[in-house]
């Protein structure tokens, strides 16, 4: 929705395919993926550690943490972006 609201992707770039759902055109897919990559790699300071990180690293660490939780039957402590 953010990219549509900002005019990066337009509603006219979506087409409905009979029985196959709604599809984005090639240009809108490229725009989406480019913006997704920028978002995932944008640096920010972790609220707890004050170290620079990005969403890709946060997600990677949390997948590893979830694996540990499931394998060892321990309580999961989610990552909290805002305090």
Descriptive report:
By secondary structure, the chain is an alpha+beta fold. It has two domains: 1-41, no CATH class; 43-83, no CATH class. It has helices spanning 2-5, 26-41, 55-72, and strands spanning 14-17, 21-24, 44-45, 52-53. It has a two-stranded antiparallel sheet with strand order 1-2. The protein has a two-stranded antiparallel sheet with strand order 3-4. The two termini are 25 Å apart. The mean pLDDT is 92.
Keywords:
alpha+beta, 46% helix, two-stranded antiparallel ribbon, 2 domains, 83 residues, CRISPR-assoc_Cas1_C, two-stranded antiparallel sheet
Quick description:
46% of the residues lie in helices and 14% in strands.
Number of domains: 2
Mean pLDDT: 92
Compute the number of helices.
3
Rg, rounded, reads 18 Å
């Amino acid at each position: 929705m953010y990219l549509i609201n900002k005019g990066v992707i337009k509603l006219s770039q979506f087409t409905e395919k009979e029985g196959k759902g709604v599809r984005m055109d090639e240009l809108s897919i490229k725009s989406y993926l480019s913006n997704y990559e920028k978002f995932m790699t944008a640096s920010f300071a972790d609220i707890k550690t004050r170290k620079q990180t990005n969403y890709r690293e946060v997600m990677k660490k949390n997948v590893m943490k979830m694996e540990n939780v499931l394998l060892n039957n321990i309580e999961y402590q989610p990552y909290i972006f805002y305090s």
